[in-house]
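Entry type: protein chain
Record version: 2
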Amino acid sequence: MTSLLFIPSSRLKRILAAGCSALLFAALAPPLQAATLRMAIQGEPASLAPARVNGTVFDNDVLGDLYEGLVTLDATGRYIPGVASGWQVSDDGRTYTFELREDARWSDGEPVKAVDFVTAFRTALDPKSPSVYASLFYPIEGAQQAARGEVALESIGVSAENEHQLRIELVQPITYLPALLAHIAASPLPTHLIERLGDDWSSIDEIVTNGAFAPRSWVSHDHLSAVKNPYFHAAESVALEGIDYYPMEDPAAGVQRFRAGEFDVVRSFPVGDYPRLAQQLGEQVRLSTELGVYYYALNQRDGQPTSDKRVREALNLAIDREVIADKIMQGTVIPAESFVPPGVDHYQGAQMPGLDAPLDQRQARARTLLSDAGYSASPLVLRLAFNENRTNRSIAIAVAAMWRAIGVETELVNAEASVHFSNLAGGQFGIGRASWIGDYDDADNFLGILQSGNAKNYGGYRDDQFDALLERAAAEQDQQRRAAILQAAEAQALDDYALLPLYFDASRNLVAEGVKGWQDNVLNRHLARWLSLQAQ
């Protein structure tokens, strides 16, 4: 039966008038270009295979455009259906059944099937080469045991009911499962290609992807090109012809090329340049609140000086975070005395002990702690590793000076981003610069990376009480009680001085006037499918 919508004549006149105005505006406005977006990113992706990335912002920048999961993000950072057209949840909240859209296609035209998600989860949890994000999926039935090699991958709670229906079974209900499924690690994998090529499926000459764009060429350390995927289910709404990603580990060089008109978007810029850039570039400079923390990982493995809690406490006490936030970061960030950023939904964070004392008192206690740890006759010598850019180097130099005040000698070690984060993941460092940008708006997303066995737990922090609290929080459905448990877990990690937080970050982007559709959001995720270029 056809349903007719009645519109009063007065309202119809307003609609027609608005429509005429819109047509007039469209006729006068500069035309949109079906062009290629030129984006400077902070480093080169570790891989084009979702399970093989290192977990950096620039991995998300690229793979977020190449793949689409069951759930995706709109321009504002809100979660919306992706490959899934919808889903149902069982009464006990433990079983999700996803209906896949029938028009979802890989860039070779093959349909995206439920089995492609089964392949993805099994690959991410494979104990032979687990994804750095494997722990994100531990709420899935059998996932944690599979990642540890205790059960077969085939036993995890992800199954294809048919070609277009996927079933996910959870250990206990979690309210944020759709947000997890928007993560790049939950992207489908082309089973049909993997069956033919094995691990070679993700080479630039063979790869197919299911997102709005598909990779075309990759010149290492120069640029990666992607073109519009004509088989993408919403291809008609994608304005760009393609994207060229340029790894720019030196943000100053990215700014210079942006000003020369060579880039349309720059995903980071030196924070010290903010006042000048804001004055000169106006609204092209985008500074926005972000759920992110900049910190130093402290290697706690056997034989490392920072395996001693007294050393970790001393190093934390000696840092003047206000100087770093106000002087080096130009007041654009907030000094961090905890790990979970302020503003996380339904959460009030803990605080690291001792940081509320005056700096001279903290320095005196730090010297005593180092002496007690055996560093009185000879100084403590540390290696501080960071991925090379001007801001990271400035912070490292300042931190080394602060540690020098308590008798610590620091050797600065820099490397390109891909090498640096690979070293962190492999535990090949002493103290290492790191950051964490929230994958979803929940305290567990931050605290979870300190859990035993988490691939992002660079320092190797391990505490049974902390792990037990996170497990309790995962099973708790009452938001207030869950928040209290998570706060206790954060307090435990901070009391152990599990890491060295420096500041809570803000997103810093340069966006040319001709780029339309960009919207700042707390996740700092900006899928190119929502962007367009306007002729200048």
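Comment: Confidence is low (pLDDT under 50) at residues 1-30.
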